[in-house]
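Example record used in the benchmark description.
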Amino acid sequence: MTPARALKFDTIGEVFYARKLGCGKADRLDTAQSVTKELEHGLELHRNSFVFDAYGFMPAGGGRDLRLDELIAANAGRDQIRDAREEFAKNTSFNDPEQLKLLRAAWEYAGVDCIFQNAGVEGNDVERLLKRFSFFTNLIDRVPDLLERAAYPDRLPGIRARGRKALYLTTNGVPIPRKLDSKEEALEQIAVFFRLGARMMHLTYNRRNLIGDGCAESADAGLSDFGRAVIEEMNRLGVIPDVAHSGQRTSFEAAKWSKKPVVASHTVAGHFSSHYRGKSDEVIAAICKTGGYVGICTIPQFLRGTADIRAMMDHIEYVARTFGPDHVAIGTDRSSVLSPAVTEHQAPPARAIWESFWSPTKEEKIPVSDEQFGSMAWGNWPLFTVGLVQRGFTDDEIRKIIGGNVLRVAEESLS
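Model output (structure tokens):
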């Protein structure tokens, strides 16, 4: 997860950012009157549409973290400290009424109805996947007046009438047991997580695993025989195969093998970006042929090293105009940090975890200002809709891009 710096705008502030950062093309920003008209229409459309983040993180809480202080003082290990920090941000911080109040406000401010929530640690280890999964299922149980766990998409259209927000859960890896006696037994954990509510899974996360090659592997070896069996089981159950962190060949072969929609839930168009997290036109076409979609993210390093909102709109428009508006979504891969976590002690430095390894790229070395980064903050979701208005998309096309396509794939996957 990339830390987010959320900015809050009133109406005047929103007009300022629409002009200065340019949600649309330059020729659409010629007068204040045209900007205001497009802004008002976009905000109204956002308010009245079902908004489904194709992949992201619900806002993270902060405040005084006593448990983390205890662990640091006791010289706890790297993994225990990391897990405690994550549990606080995504669960126990909301025991504080003020943090819970901020959480409610953040959801309303963003105007998002449902997030395809990352609820599984990056990798395939069953125990670690369960640990993060538990943070979100527990939080949903504790605040039922705010959150619902939407395991089946037919409940989602009525979520606004119930006054709730929904988490549709995904894992950043396919659960694979450490002991592999047979292919059939190795696949059983997919069904276990499906019963727990997981509806999408990353086939790989950057590195190579038993399923295929991740996007950061130079070999790009493609999908394994076991990977084909995994996709067949996911198709059978109704779990969406996600190739966002998979290599080009693995992504292509997964789309060719799957009998149901495949997605790249949070990525960018390789046409514009050389970053290895982007997808080539060949891969995007294969994904579209399955009925899936490409979710464009808001991470500057993937967007040609810039956080200008126009870069994000360029990627969305390219995919929509080239492959059709039925096959693009917005998967922010971002969160709002409601307030900083406060500890008395400083955690010791630790080596990066292998599954999370990122090969350095030139784009990741380009400095990004707070102002630019803030333009694509998770709380600015309404401005994404405004940007689509300014790019000339119809209302129907916009409704698909900001939620309809994700909902359709969720339904088709379980059919």
